[in-house]
Amino acid sequence: MTPSDEYRNGDMCSGASGASLSDESSDEEGIGALEAELSLTDETAAARSLQALNALRKARQHYDVLLVARGAEIPAHRAVLAAVSPALLAALPPAGDLQPHRMDDLEPEALRDLVDYAYTGRLRVRDAAAARRLYRAAAMLRIEPARQHLADRLLRRLTPTDCLSQRTLPELTPAHRAQLDAYIAQHFDEVWGSSALTALPLVRLELLRETSAERCEESPATLAGAALAWLRAVPIDLQNLMARTHLLYVDAGGALRDCGELPAARGDAPYLSEYKREAREREREVGREREAARRTASGVVDEENGVVAARRVAGGTETRTLLYVRGTLIAAQVSWRAASASDTPRGGRLGVAADDQPQADQEDGSCRAHMSVGRCAMGAAEVGGRLVVCGGYDRARVLRSAEAYDPENDTWTPLPDMRRARARLAAARLASRLYVLGGSDGYTELDSVDVLADGAKTWTAVAPLPVARQYAAAAANDSQGQLYVVGGWAGGRSLRDVHRYSAADNSWSDAPALSTGRSQCAAAVWQGALWAIGGCDEWRCLASTETLSLEGDATAWRAGPPLPTARRSVGAAVWRGALVAAGGSAGAASLRCTEILTVGATAWCSGPSLRRPRAAPALAPVGEALYAAGGYSGKQFLACVECLQQLDGEWTTLLDSPDVTKLAITDTLEAVNEGEQRDVTGNQAV
């Protein structure tokens, strides 16, 4: 073969090159048409490939990354995740690292649904609650199409019970926030009365004013703005803010200030004296923590602060408001409190105060006698006109001792020791006998039940509980001679069990089970029904309540009005015709709040705050007063006692609760005895 023959079909230097080129061009047109006829364009191939990849990962084959959310494992392909969420890719370990990647800040179901969305383009949303969970996960992973879609759809279906949940969603646009705020303002009363409010931190503020006749001219928006300014400036975390009512005054510039910052002054009303004293105690205890919090708070930027809505209660002096404080949505109750001129600070709009120079601490009365030892998780009841407490913890040990408080003589008297040490017990009085039921001896749950008759010198045993348990609640139905034990903790779970004891034949029987397993709850018999109040399931504090009718043959518990704040270890008592819940723990902090449910009411109303935070207190009416003793303050086991004389009164640790006029008259008499004439206001006579 010659070189020209070898290159005949493609050698452009040959004589036939022009003809060859022309033939090749015409051939290309023919091949293009043939290619179009023979080629395949499958628009579903990409979807099928993703579908195949999805099937492989679900079968745990050929995946290259493993996501783990709270124990749930979700296999995936790094490239698919990168396509839907570059932010997620950046968070993953380097390529080739097959170690599981933990994402415990996401709910497993939400993460699983979003990974499915990456493969299928479909996002299945079952209800509004699931939509909010998916929204939060999509916002965290920066999956914008899913986040925007969910935000738009959620705001189309607002209701008074879920609008607050929507408002707390992160990264809402200004337009979405404005739409939500307008809806909340329009439906404020329904929103405030809904169960959704119990999920928000609730802060109570009381503002001193000179007289009860003084009109509150400030608009709700003005008060809400002043409350927001005060809350932003206070270097205290929300749990501590919720733990007590804050007594404030308005300074000369119109700003709110805490009365605890004022020096003690002679002539202060008892409630104000106690508030100032407790403020000094807290300052000594947590001064360093407050300073650290102040430094931290000063460095916080780009967090939402503002008034969402505010409304004054019709016919009252209370303003209710929803605020964003340092990025957290909270509810606040701002109310006015009448005070004398001696109670209000100089230079403010509310009157004249004592000198600004520090003065020595002074007591305005004698404090009530303390228990022999600080106790928590004890049993308590009124027996024979005395407050009886028994067992519990003193931090170091489980106690057998019992003692009784006589309010008339202000004395604690030892009672016979129980037959065994027990804490986390239930206790109730049936007729004139005190029953202590179950609990723990520090090692195991107990089923024993012991009884002490009024005036007896020894405890006696009766039929044991059907189920050994601790953290149960007990309540007596005197009219039927029966005792109920509600819920509790046994075998690592919160119980639904309710058992009924008949004193006549010393026997136990089953009562209808609770709708929700709960331990560390409170129980009471009120308005012909057995109540279970608060407590906790295996993981969460509960705000819910349940009732079981004791009239007729009720077979199931019904939901009652929820508490404003979820709590466990709460005290409950029936007093002055109302059901009262006081103290408890929100999980991270012991509480001071008192809630009152009156006959015919559909919601709890806020009562006066306890002087000390108390989880698991002894709470019982004795005579005309309601007493709270012991409990855990969050720092120590308490031995102190405080009492409440009226539903709208104030808790006090003092034996007497003289008013300011009586104090001023006493000062005058002392001055006369010293030969120095003064008027009843304590001013130097001319």
TrEMBL record:
Protein name as annotated: Kelch-like protein diablo
Residue span of region Disordered: 1-28, 342-365
Domain BTB per the UniProt entry, residue ranges: 63-127
Source species of the chain: Leptosia nina
Known role: Probable substrate-specific adapter of an E3 ubiquitin-protein ligase complex which mediates the ubiquitination and subsequent proteasomal degradation of target proteins. May have a role in synapse differentiation and growth.
GO molecular function terms noted in the UniProt entry: actin binding
Keyword set, alphabetical order: Actin-binding, Kelch repeat, Repeat, Ubl conjugation pathway
Pathway assignment: Protein modification; protein ubiquitination
Keyword Acetylation: no
Upper classification of the organism: Eukaryota, Metazoa, Ecdysozoa, Arthropoda, Hexapoda
